[in-house]
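Researcher: Before we compare anything, I want clean individual predictions. No alignment, no superposition, just each chain on its own. First chain goes here; please echo the sequence and then give the structure tokens.
Model: Echoing the first chain and its structure:
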Amino acid sequence: MHSDTFRRMWADHDVLAHTSGTKRLHHPLVGDLTLDYLVLAVEGDPEQTLTIYTPEPASPSVEALALLASWTSATKRGGATGNRYLKAVP
């Protein structure tokens, strides 16, 4: 596709930042996740941003993230995780 408008916008970096929306991700252990995101600017440093991802309440994504968090919590306590993908850190 050839577009003079696109070429000009690309050269001028005249694009809009996506500061909020929904991302769909696939985790190899817990499956599909749907997360809302919000991108915040870091005051005083325009090249840095903070991105916050949150699942919809009572969704399958909440359950999947809780499962991942439980494995991490067990690992940090030094307990057995029962998961071959995670290893305890001394």
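Researcher: Okay. Second chain, same rules.
Model: Second chain and its structure:
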Amino acid sequence: MSYLLDGERAARLIEYKARDSRQPGFMAVVDKLLEKTWKAPLPEGYKGELQTMVNNEVMRYLLQLAASTNTSKIVRGQALLKLEELKSFINAQLPTAEPNLKANMLFALVQMDAFKADPSKFQAPASIAIPPGAPIGMPNMDFLNDEIVH
């Protein structure tokens, strides 16, 4: 999910759509993602619980994308639009939803309200930088045993 809803990738999708209208663009990609997750029927049993988890991850990544100060304002705006559309969809489906789905929908609405109150709480955690050099216990590239000094 992190690759699909990445800020830089989303910006490229928007740019490509601007250059060539035949390209899907970021909003079309998110529409397809929501169609296959939140808007798809929830299976019963274990598969349904997995789908609920995936739905929550999709929403979490959209919230992080909309909150990210490192992402372009265009991407953030489009992510916000898709979140508002998802909120409208959830509100329309809520009265007739089954209890498990209704619980997940209520959780999503609470998360969206929390986002509106304080978007900074939804910033993605900073990536951990890999330290330079060879892994501990491995002297440089000698593990290749190719008799070439690296």
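Researcher: What stands out in the second chain?
Model: Helices lie at 7-19, 25-36, 45-67, 73-93, 99-117. Additionally, The chain has five helices and no strands.
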